[in-house]
Write a structure and sequence with these properties.
By secondary structure, the protein is mostly helical. The chain has two domains: 6-123, de novo design (two linked rop proteins) (Up-down Bundle), CATH 1.20.1440; 126-158. The chain has helices at residues 10-25, 35-58, 61-87, 95-120, 132-157. It is elongated, with a radius of gyration of 21 Å. It starts with 9 loop residues before the first helix and ends with a helix.
Length: 158
């Protein structure tokens, strides 16, 4: 599937869900005296989706890769802070919520890693470089590949 807007991306949607659930969690009373920790957790959670969006909008595969790794770093930062919260006595009643957020952050990070891995093995430079000439070449390659598949099917039937 080809995505034209970052809002369509599964990884971006997972990151938004992570941010929404993080903001919901940080409204708990246990964060009243943890302002800087709360702020840093919220900023890191928002950073995941923002970096996916920024990388996607840049228009080059290399810049997208860079921002995907930054987003993964932010997801790791969220997990690290959640690990800290697990060990703080004032958050002892929130083990389930913390565990769920950690799982969501890990899932988002896995999606980003898979996407980055697939991009590293592509010859596509990005939409910024997609000229009419490049489009024609890509269309010709697709047409050729389709013709070859059709010929193989015909040969297999004989």
């Amino acid at each position: 599937m080809r995505y034209t807007r970052f809002e369509e991306l599964p990884a971006w949607n997972a990151a938004i869900e992570l941010a929404v659930r993080t903001y919901t969690f940080t409204r708990e009373g246990a964060f009243e005296k943890q302002g800087t920790l709360r702020d840093q957790l919220e900023r890191a959670a928002v950073s995941v989706s923002n970096n996916i969006a920024e990388g996607f909008e840049r228009g080059t595969t290399q810049e997208l890769l860079t921002f995907l790794y930054i987003a993964r770093g932010s997801a790791g930062e969220v997990r690290s802070m959640l690990c800290l919260l697990e060990r703080l006595p004032s958050f002892g009643n929130f083990k389930s919520e913390i565990s769920n957020l950690k799982s969501l952050a890990e899932n988002t990070s896995r999606q980003l890693r898979g996407w980055a891995d697939s991009l590293q093995n592509t010859s596509i430079k990005g939409t910024r470089y997609l000229t009419d000439k490049v489009r024609k070449i890509e269309t010709a390659k697709k047409d050729r590949d389709e013709l070859l598949r059709d010929l193989q099917r015909v040969q297999a039937k004989q």
